[in-house]
Amino acid sequence: MKEEIIIAGFGGQGVLSMGKILAYSGIMQGQEVTWMPSYGPEMRGGTANVTVILSDKKISSPILSRFDTAIILNQQSMDKFESQVKQGGLLIYDPNGITRHPQRKDITICSIDAVELSAELGNSKAYNMVVLGAYLKKKPIVEMINVIKGLKKSIPERHHSLIPMNEKAIQIGMERITELHTI
Questions:
Q1: I need a labelling partner for 66 at 20 to 30 A (CA). Which of 1, 84, 107, 112 fits?
Q2: 13: which strand partners?
Q3: Domains in the chain with CATH codes
Q4: Cross-sheet strand order for the sheet of 85-93
Q5: Which long-range contacts (CB under 8 A, 24 or more apart) does 85-89 make?
Q6: Tens of pLDDT along 71-99?
């Protein structure tokens, strides 16, 4: 098993932390993992993306040009990464702020309205966990027990009281993902 993922959006959407939680979850599950962030100098509003690789074998390089899965959270990232999803791959996106929806017919395309769902939860900071739940529904490459361990590892201990809310956000993402195109 090897899963090569790009998560891309604006700074402040939790792109890097979503990747970190996924990476820690893989480590807790005994997988080989790479986590390689890329972001502009802006703290919020600039572009940010992270490449995560999870594998049951050694990973030769963290640098990728094609991905099994792309998680897209803004139009700039859609424009840049839609074409880089491998044939037969998966693209998950939040339609908020997207003006040109994905057009490919050789990949599975799913949507998750994470803005609305995190608002329903009463916490906009749960946005990235809703998206993570959508991804894990389509590709359950790490078990939920390890995701919780990954959350505990990546969230400062003073914020561990937020873990149940994050777990609920993941569950909602799993329940509310919409498949738009299947190959």
A1: 112
A2: none
A3: 2-181 (3.40.920.10)
A4: 32-39, 47-55, 2-10, 67-72, 85-93, 108-111, 178-181
A5: 88/183
A6: 999 999 999 999 999 999 999 999 998 99
Residue 24 to residue 26: CA distance in whole angstroms: 5
Q: pTM for the complete prediction?
A: 0.94
Q: Which two tokens stand for residue 61?
A: 């390089």
| CA 86, chain centre distance (Å) | 17
Q: Residues with Cβ < 8 Å from 41, sequence gap 6 or more?
A: none
DSSP 49-62: EEEEEEESS--S-S
